């Protein structure tokens, strides 16, 4: 069906077409070739234990190095990939590349940390999902504890009955799940008690307003209280200021990610930060933004 749609789309393509639409079609064509042409790579953003500043995890984030346009961010191409039915193959590539990277860090003597991978609803809901993940882990001789699967609250909303079964199987395998972008998805809190769900990520939209915005502060505190009583680990996203850090630390949030500590980094930069032979990692890593 996707093929037919694509053909039709090109049949109606004319120079009179709005530039945006033309650009999207172009993007779609190029996205189909991106995997084969090896244009994807991963960057990794550290997750910090707020109390100590220690790096306890990294999150794999996908980047597309476009031959002419340079680096394209997921917000631009993930929705297109979803529309084209390409997202599963891309997610599988990300999983394989992440496990290969973990193995490479292990071989280089980098201390083992948790590595989070973002999963689309399309793949998470697929019957072959759990098997695919565990086979990728096995092929790299990695234990399930090394991986954290991030699934957004809104993606959970699209998933039906398969969710609970998938979570049960993941739990049995020892693979943990984080609910990403929590608070933005209009979803049921029932997701938080599913097996395998062990982490909750507070969306950046709430963190941005801290500490001044009293609504954001109240919502954040409520999420932290709920998370704590459910025995979940809370990770705050998008921490950019000392004041946000201080608020979250005092409110009992355990972990955080954000530009205050580190931008997403290349694998060798992560290795440099984590390698025991390097000088100790400072509590706060104020790094120079990557060149754009
Ligand atoms: P996310 O999983 O919630 O990832 C966090 C996003 O916030 C990342 O954007 C990260 O670079 C950005 N970020 C981190 N700290 C800060 C901060 O302090 N301030 C601001 N303004 N932004 C911050 P990125 O890499 O552009 O990814 C955007 C979204 O795309 C991700 O949101 C995730 O939902 C999706 N995504 C990324 N990689 C993948 C992937 O491999 N597969 C799938 N299915 N989705 C992915
Ligand atoms: Mg994420
Ligand atoms: Mg998120
Ligand atoms: Mg987010």
From TrEMBL:
The keyword S-adenosyl-L-methionine does not apply. Residues 24-278 form the EAL domain. It comes from the Bacteria. Keywords: Membrane, Transmembrane, Transmembrane helix. This is Phosphodiesterase. It comes from Rhodanobacter glycinis. The lineage of its organism: Bacteria, Pseudomonadati, Pseudomonadota, Gammaproteobacteria, Lysobacterales.
